[in-house]
TrEMBL record:
Organism: Halomonas kalidii
Transmembrane segments: none
Alphabetical UniProt keywords: Methyltransferase, RNA-binding, rRNA processing, S-adenosyl-L-methionine, Transferase
Name of the gene: rlmJ
Organism phylogeny: Bacteria, Pseudomonadati, Pseudomonadota, Gammaproteobacteria, Oceanospirillales
EC number: 2.1.1.266
Sequence positions that bind S-adenosyl-L-methionine: 19, 42, 104, 122, 146-147, 167
Catalytic site: 167
Record's function text: Specifically methylates the adenine in position 2030 of 23S rRNA.
Name this polypeptide is given: Ribosomal RNA large subunit methyltransferase J
Subunit structure: Monomer.
Pfam families named among the record's database cross-references: RsmJ
Amino acid sequence: MLSYQHAYHAGNFADVHKHLTLFAVIDHLLRKSSPITYIDTHAGRGIYPLAAEETRKLQEYRQGVAPLWQARQALAEEPLLHAWLVSLGRVQQRDGELDHYPGSPWWLAQRLRPEDRLRLFELHPGELDHLARQHLPDNVRRIHGDGLQGLLQRLPVSTPRLCVLVDPSFERKSEYAEVAKAVWSAMRKARHAVMLVWYPLLPAGRHRELLEGLRDHGLRKIWCSELSLREPVTDERGMYGSGMLVVNLPWGLDERLAAAMARITPLLGDTATYRDEWWVAE
Ligand code: SAM
């Protein structure tokens, strides 16, 4: 049963971490002219009005995108953050106000060129209805179905380059191992793909299954970064941090992201930390 709805969490610190990483990867890929297929295996709604009932309930964006938006003038000195915040400004409807937060379909579509393609998978019919109402370019397809199966069925793609975002809700414990298997299988069919995978940091530590699964399958060139709001507390159940792994991270992006994250981490609270490492080297 699907019960997760991203609207309850839109714009939180994990979204900032995920979408800034995605933005940096896209920015790098666009330095070359050859066409790209983008696949978003777990798309969600696309755009989230912060005034929506679900988002107002937890207001997680207050410890996520909101402090960055407030500090945007100071952050403009940092080139990646400046570009990200300018893009974020484009979805706002009232001048100078933060009233919407864009999800991955928007971040992927906003710099799509006519020669590129974007495939968005969403399994939840209600979330797909929201996504269907978003205005997106003609070379975007919204597909109702399982994103991991859909990804594997579409490989290899006909464009020279491929970039995939895997962003599940991890509602089932088995999803960590399933994602590891799907990413490994996909990379066998598309060795040069840049593949981004988001994972939650929870006290139970199940994300280790995902990371170790990929390493044990023999996948190489895996970089990962983790943004934590606090140290894990074993008797608590909530998410304390956000993880991103990128297979085939383009050269130099680790340093670019570290510089941007160093600026924003202190804005997320006194106990917030950021770290990155090559989980498996080339
Ligand atoms: N990627 C989105 C973003 O960054 O804005 C957020 C995605 S949210 C974390 C996960 C989404 O995956 C939910 O909308 C959920 O309905 C959907 N979902 C769950 N299982 C799925 C599956 N097997 N295939 C495709 N979508 C799925």
